[in-house]
Amino acid sequence: YSSKRPFDFMAGGKGADLLRMKIFSERYHFRINVTSTRCPFIPREDQTCPGRISECSHCSTTEGCHRSVATTFSVYFPPATVPSSAHAENLKRPDISRR
Question: What phi, psi does 73 have (nearest 5°)?
């Protein structure tokens, strides 16, 4: 992440970075989707992750933490469109070899 600061939800960047990516997706015509699974040990909105496995009273290993939560970012770039043949004719360079 460009900001190098923690996300507001303790995950490694700032929420503004996610918003910026979403704005770029609308401007440049690609799709971005984010899905997350909240840690089952902190189910309420007022509970937060300590941000370090060593400080978590529920997980003692990295693997245990990684199996209990997930965030998936999906990005779809649509295929480029090929110009119609009429439009392609207009894009051809003029023949200057006869001059």
Answer: -105, 125
Q: What is the Cα–Cα distance from 80 to 29, expressed in whole angstroms?
A: 11
93 falls within a domain: no
Note whether residue 97 is domain-resident. no
Threshold 0.85, pTM exceeds? no
Report how many domains make up the chain: 1
- Could you read off the pLDDT of 47-69 as tens digits, one per residue? 888 888 888 888 888 888 888 88
For residue 86 the two structure tokens come to 């009429």
Query: What span, in angstroms and rounded, lies between the C-alpha atoms of 76 and 98?
Result: 46
The whole domain housing 16 covers 1-44+52-79
